[in-house]
Amino acid sequence: MHIALIFHTARANNSNGWMHMQLPEGGKIPRSACARKYEVRDSQGVVWVWMSDANPPDERKLPWFEPYARAGFTDLSTVHELPYDHSILLENLMDPAHVPISHDRTDWTAKREDAQPLFFDVTERTARGFAGYWGRTRTPHLRNLLRFQAPCVLTNTLQYTDKDGKDQCFSAQFLCRPAGQGKSMLIVRFGSTVRSPIAKVLPAWYLHQNACKVFEQDMGFLSSQNEVLLREQVPTRELYLNLRSSDTWVAEYRKWMDRAGHGMPYYFGHSSLAPPPVPAVVEQAPAGAVAGISASFPAKGGVGTVHAPNPTNRYFRHVVHCKGCRASVNKYTSLKNAFAVLAAAAVAASILAATRQWKAVLLAASAVLAAASYACDAVLSLITTNFIRTHRRL
Question: CA dist 113 to 11, 246, 259, Å?
Fold first, then answer.
């Protein structure tokens, strides 16, 4: 599919509706006035752009995710803007060891007591990435296939047989796009051939806000790590203590950087690096008590409506990029305000009511409407406010 921009030229409208620029008769449009066009493809719900001018588009290089082509496979997609570097994002996503600790009882599967040594088996290393299997030592029959396809695709797939003897599949797909130094964009797709009955009835905004929680639990650590890399400017093996029982993929990723980092504007590898000549200012995500105060602020600036975009704030990190969550925010804001107005009207009517019975009915209605307004406000808070653990500091 070809996408091109069509320019309408600029002169007064004539009979056929076209306009043209003020060029001499037969004059050519300057080359610098022409927009570049790119080949795009829609593959499995993701739009890919072919950026190369030197080589023709090659559809064989489109990432193809086999689980997503299976019958009955469904997925939930969310998008996030994150305040740390693309490489730190990828490194975090391919680190299964931190999940039971950092995300204890947040994503419905992570439990602190499940933390254990992991096993790894690297089966492929190329200039385009690496792949291999990993699993937990207590359940060695459950082997996850992890694959990194440079520069932006990471997948983790678990295939297993359920209690009825049917083959099932769970897959997590992460599409990571650099957005500049210290910034990245992420599309997350969690999918499975089996869908929980609870997930079928929960609204999409609730599942999205739970996904946001997971990234907020890591955000303080990772943005701090971003600052350390830029400040120290040494290879990661001098900063990290990589353990064979948990950090194999992290080390593989940084070693891949050693092999392929020369094709990037800057990189931090396992044994080598090319730091940016002028490091951008990286704002650390708030942590501890500061994070609690920051997360309690209204997402859109409180009294006014103007608020500087801040990627440490969930509203600007997720909601502004998500059509569904934006619609939910607008809907629940309208409902909250309507219920509040009706509650106030019911109170005023109860004052004017002639009988005690009507006063009681109107006051009860006011209480119900006020509770509904409060419930809508609670939903808005879930959608837009950062999650902060109260029992421990980040």
Answer: 72, 16, 37
Question: How far apart are alpha carbons 87 and 260 in whole angstroms?
Answer: 13
Q: Count other C-beta atoms under 10 Å from residue 250's C-beta.
A: 21
Strand partners, 169: 159
Tell me which amino acid residue 67 is. P
What is the pLDDT, as a whole number, of residue 313? 85
106 contacts 210 by C-beta, under 8 angstroms? yes
Residue type, 278: V
Q: Is 227 left (phi over 0), alpha (psi -120 to 50) or beta?
A: alpha
Percent share of the chain, pLDDT over 70: 85
The alpha carbon of residue 335 and the mean position of all alpha carbons in its chain are separated, in whole angstroms, by: 28
In this prediction, residue 367 has a pLDDT band, given cuts at 50, 70 and 90, of: very high
Q: What share of the chain is helix, strand, coil (3-state, %, to 5)?
A: 40, 20, 40
H/E element holding 146? strand 144-149
For residue 268, give the amino acid letter: F
Find where tokens 């975090």 sit. Answer: 92
Torsion of CA 193, 198, 203, 208, to 10 degrees: -70
Structural tokens at position 82 = 């994150």
Rounded to whole angstroms, the Cα distance separating 194 from 251 reads 33
From CA 151, how far away is CA 128, in angstroms rounded? 8
* 262-274 as b/e: b if 16+ CB within 10 A: eeeeebbbbebbe
Percent of the chain at pLDDT above 90?
Answer: 46
H or E stretch including 173? Answer: strand 167-178
The residue with tokens 């694959």 is 147
Concatenate the DSSP letters of all residues of 38-84 into one string: -EEEEETTEEEEE--SSS---GGGS---GGGGSTT-EEEEEEEEESS
Express each pLDDT in 303-318 by its tens digit. 334 445 677 788 889 9
Positive or negative, the CA dihedral 354, 338, 213, 77 is positive
Position 6 scores a pLDDT of 29
d(CA 246, CA 254): 15
For residue 129, the 8-state DSSP code is E
Q: 379 and 332 in contact (C-beta within 8 Å)?
A: yes
**What global pTM score does this model have?**
0.81
